[in-house]
Give the backbone structure.
Amino acid sequence: MTETPTITIPADLLPQDGRFGSGPSRINPSFVRDLSNTGTAFLGTSHRQSNVKKVVASIQSGLMHMYGLPDGFEVVLGLGGATAFWDATVLGLIENRSAHFVCGEFSRKFATAAAAAPHLDEPVIVDADPGDAPAPVAVGGVDLAAFIHNETSTGVVAPFARLGDALVAVDGTSAAGAIAFDVEEVDAYYFSPQKALGSDGGLWIAFLSPAAIERIELISTTSRWIPEFLSLKTALDNSRSAQTYNTPALATLYLLDRQIEFVNHRGGIKWADAAVRATSDHLYSWANMRSFAEPFVTDEALRSPTVVTIDLDESVSARSVSAVLRANGIVDTESYRKLGRNQLRIATFPNVVISDVKSLTASIDFVVEAL
Ligand SMILES: *Cc1c(COP(=O)(O)O)cnc(C)c1O
């Protein structure tokens, strides 16, 4: 490892908040203070009682409202993040065979989980190179089509669509609470709260359509063995009484509820969508104007508005740039480790204000000049 050069970014260039990570992402500090101010009234109290259950109910109704979920949709919660939801889906939502539209590490992990399941047929994989996304196509002989809304590992916002009879499952982890979409196109839209929704980790949340709920009920009556912790039926039953099957992190619930309220108060998903597009546009335009930088995703329509990936010219080491930024309090601009590119990855979730991103690009300019 080469040492980080000692470069001090002038204080007037630095962002107010130096967190630009894609997850865990920036949490609004005022919500953390509010959580602290709940004192003895919330943390350390029973999740089976009303003061926690009302927060869960508020998360559910807040998300219903944010997306205008149609009648019959339910907001279901469980423990273990989106990763656990993949296993839960393999066990409780895929009947025989799934199709996976893969364009990076996260969409591939779900495909791998389905492929490993002894009770399922070999999944169909439709994949694209990193930085690209496969076009949705109808796949015959599958009962679930899995898409990703935003591939956090590459900074691609991917298309998804209902084509045929298969249930449509979409990983919305780095999109939920930030990018608008047509709810009619999905049966299961699931995510973890520590990315675009600026809370902490440990939970999964899913919007489930009536068709998805029917499938869950159906599979739960078969002889398939489903561990209770990963049972979507159990999660559904608990969510209907504003609870989770086992103990959730109460801080995560509190911060999530506050963030949902924050977005809804400002105009909901439309507001968030416009905000993240403005912030990411600043970064993409900046990269286009610099001789040493260019957006990694060449197709403009696939450039993520929430996770911006910027390749640097080989004359500038992205690793050094990120290390110098880190030494100056600007953290988590490193690219996704397994992608292996000379790249910066910057989250522009709704909590990342555009003034901070402008300070970030000014700071990067300063560092590149000094290196
Ligand atoms: C981070 C991430 C996951 C995994 O989330 P966990 O909470 O760690 O399980 C899954 N999908 C996407 C798109 C992600 O960004």
The chain has two domains: 14-28+268-370, 30-264. DSSP finds ten helices and twelve strands in the chain. The CA atoms of residues 197 and 259 lie 7 Å apart.
